[in-house]
Structure prediction request, 404 residues.
Amino acid sequence: MNKIKIGFFILFFLILLGALFLLNTFQSPVKSKLEKVPEFQVTRISKNGTVYKNSAMTDPFQIKNLKHPEEVFLKADAQTAFEFIYSETFFSVLPGSSMFHQTKTKELFLNGDFFWHKVTKGKKVEIYLSTAEEIIGFSKPDKTKFSPDSQPSIQKILSLSDSGRVKNSVNTLEIWNYSGELILNLGNDPYPLRPNQMLVMEKRNNRISFNDTLPPPEYISPEEKTIHLNLIGDSIIKFGWKNVKGTTQYQLRLYTSELRENVIFDKSVTANRKSLDILKFENENKIYWEVYPYDTQKNIEGSPSRMGKIEIVGVILDKEKLLKPPKLEIVSLTVSGNIVLIKGEADANSQLFINDEFVKIDMDGKFIHTITFKTIGTKSIVFKLISPSEIETVFERQVAIFEE
Prediction:
């Protein structure tokens, strides 16, 4: 009898352990409900400036105080960006932009400059592109509900792609489609955009034009890196990315956060690499960067690369050495007819331009370059070497071109 009781308790104990294991392995309906992503939620605000809950910008907004009211109006000041999730889509809203969300109808109205990317690819998500006046009007106590007949401008509904960008200014509406299929509905007229395509609308006459844009660089370096500053040279970062076919110019941007609200470096680069001395940003312990291919014929940016992240640790004490101009030496300069052959040595981390043309420096700091002149006479050759600290060495040489 005692053996039966002991066996019963052992069996009961094993069943109890199994039940506990199943509860920890599978989510219960209650737990799943608690972890469900809300339809709308502000997730981040940049550290500089303020986001407000009213158009007069007198009532500051705090993420922790948001209790999903019936209507949410947010307007960022000129220094502040914020991020929110709506219908499984993340929006990064740049400074000066505003938005309005109706909780009951699940409608979202956006104005200004913003990026988006979907968590669930292919999910149908629609937003309204409103003017600043319309958005601000939603925040007033005597506002009227949105309806196409009550709006001063044509109704604009954007069926979002997987990722892209919108710049909605006073005179123009610009839409970049980075990936997926996108449709802009103007009243009853749909305007689809393919991946790597841009739409520009002139609001004065509703004139619309399309441009194909360049795809993003597929590879970036460093994608994520921690820099330990100890010695001279530790602070020099070699940024690189895979070439994009069809362009010879890129826009390299560095930010203090993933929200892009504070651009600390923004320059055109004629090669798929750039060395920078990050000591000039020593007050920042984290730097984020991305690069855009640039179409020089159409004067438009393409799709951005993935965003890289650099964390800075430590301090360099002897900073004065970094402020010296980079070394540039012309070893030989040979003229043969109308062709000039130049050989030289330079700092391998710097960028060299000869008569404004980019010249590649090898790993040993050596370079070879030729220039062909179409006419005879005395010709000037301007050498410019730019260090990672943005310090320049510039000088000029002259050569005489004769007829053979």
Summary: Residues 19-35, 143-152 have pLDDT under 50 and may be disordered. The first strand starts at residue 40 and ends at 45.
